[in-house]
From TrEMBL:
Transcription recorded as keyword: yes
Biological-process GO terms, alphabetical: cell morphogenesis; regulation of cutin biosynthetic process
One Pfam family here: Myb_DNA-binding
Myb-like domain boundaries: 9-61, 62-112
Protein name per the record: Uncharacterized protein
Main location group: nucleus
One annotated GO molecular function: DNA binding
SUPFAM superfamilies to which the protein is assigned, alphabetical: Homeodomain-like (SSF46689)
Cellular-component GO terms for this entry: nucleus
DNA sequence: AAGTGACTCAACCGCGTAACC
DNA sequence: AGGTTACGCGGTTGAGTCACT
């Protein structure tokens, strides 16, 4: 325990970095790797604490950082992952390659959170503030189940993020970078690194599919113990929740958002054509059947769909989707569809946005 | 043009914890 | 086993910028 005293030293510079300092830090890391952050400033000739150097590097100087406006898809990704993970920015950043946790955190706090609030959505729970309006019979159970699954998935994502991070650390030296760039995967660690990244999506799907199978197989008889390690929810609830839970739904992505215009047009949609009107038009929002447990997806859809656009198109699962519709009432099927879409989108998200092989 | 309030985001602070001795 | 150190994370701050009056 105990806090690092690194920043307590007098004579260390604070505040904004100068181009000269950036240059020194960049040059040093390019040549030697960062190694021990604590020792780095002295070696690099910087009057900064190691912590400051690390922050400057990870949030600004790293060459694999994408800067500039967030795309609509990135926004949706953040919202969905935030619904799952909460304020665990580093875990979210793991699935938004080239964006830093700090940047995502800032973007959330300055943009997305406000938009959600403006629309009457609680940015913490991702549910409408007046949740009772959206709760029909039986939905509260599903909502509870969703959060339970989120809890589980959250733990998994966290572990995955840790692995990715470890891989990055392992490759932090220039020598290792060279080895990888030659593409020989000569060392076991390099091999593991690349295979980890490519295998992760399958693993992810396997786990979730297994979940689905186990829960689905109980067929309402209450047989089998499908509780996850963190579960505190009754098995009955789980059964209701997850029968066919991950069976994919044929895309409702009938509309299209012209890729070239997606940024601007959809940003328009976010804001509403006439400024705040759409953002404030909660009555219209409530007019459609929006399940509370799946609010994020529903609302991101809404934002994109008024001009025949669907945010699903890039996230929607592919051809092996099974259609599992039609057995329930209109309301329920809508709810189920949305749930499925929501979780399938997140699955896709996880699968598609695993970080590029680390550069450092 | 000047003043002012809102917004953005880089950087800092403090905590938790893994790693090390 | 217990103490110390170093790192990484999330929350917060404040300087710079922008928009409006």
């Amino acid at each position: 325990m105990g806090r690092s005293p690194c920043c307590d030293k007098v004579g260390l510079k604070k505040g904004p970095w100068t181009p000269e300092e950036d240059q020194k830090l960049l040059a040093y890391i390019e040549e030697h790797g960062h190694g021990s952050w604590r020792a780095l400033p002295a070696k690099a000739g910087l009057q900064r604490c190691g912590k400051s150097c690390r922050l400057r590097w990870t949030n600004y100087l790293r060459p694999d950082i994408k800067r500039g406006k967030f795309t609509l898809q990135e926004e949706q990704t953040i919202i969905q992952l935030h619904a799952l993970l909460g304020n665990r920015w580093s875990a979210i950043a793991t699935h938004l390659s080239k964006r830093t946790d700090n940047e995502i955190k800032n973007y959330w706090n300055t943009h997305l959170k406000k938009r959600l609030t403006k629309m009457g959505i609680d940015p913490v729970s991702h549910k409408p503030k007046n949740d009772t309006l959206f709760c029909r019979d039986g939905q509260s159970k599903s909502v509870a189940n969703l959060s339970h699954m989120a809890q589980w998935e959250s733990a998994r994502l966290e572990a995955e993020a840790r692995l990715v991070k470890q891989s990055r650390l392992r490759c932090s030296s220039p020598t290792e970078k060279m080895v990888r760039s030659v593409g020989e995967s000569s060392s076991a660690s390099n091999y593991k690194l690349t295979t980890h990244v490519s295998e992760a999506p399958d693993r992810c799907l396997d786990i979730l599919k297994a979940w689905n199978r186990v829960c689905g197989n109980k067929d309402g008889n209450g047989n089998g113990d499908s509780e996850s390690p963190t579960s505190t929810i009754s098995t009955t609830g789980l059964t209701e929740c997850s029968t066919n839970f991950f069976e994919l739904v044929a895309g409702n992505s009938s509309g299209s958002c012209d890729n070239e215009n997606i940024g601007e047009e959809c940003e328009e949609e976010w804001k509403g054509k006439d400024g705040n009107q759409k953002a404030n038009s909660i009555p219209d929002f409530k007019g459609i059947s929006v399940p509370s447990g799946n609010f994020v997806e529903s609302f991101t859809d809404l934002l994109l769909s008024s001009s025949g656009t669907s945010s699903h198109q890039n996230l929607q699962a592919d051809g092996d989707s099974n259609v599992a519709l039609g057995s329930s009432s209109v309301n329920n099927s809508c709810y189920d569809d949305n749930n499925k879409n929501y979780w399938n989108n997140i699955l896709d998200l996880v699968n598609s946005s695993l970080p590029d092989p680390p550069l450092f």
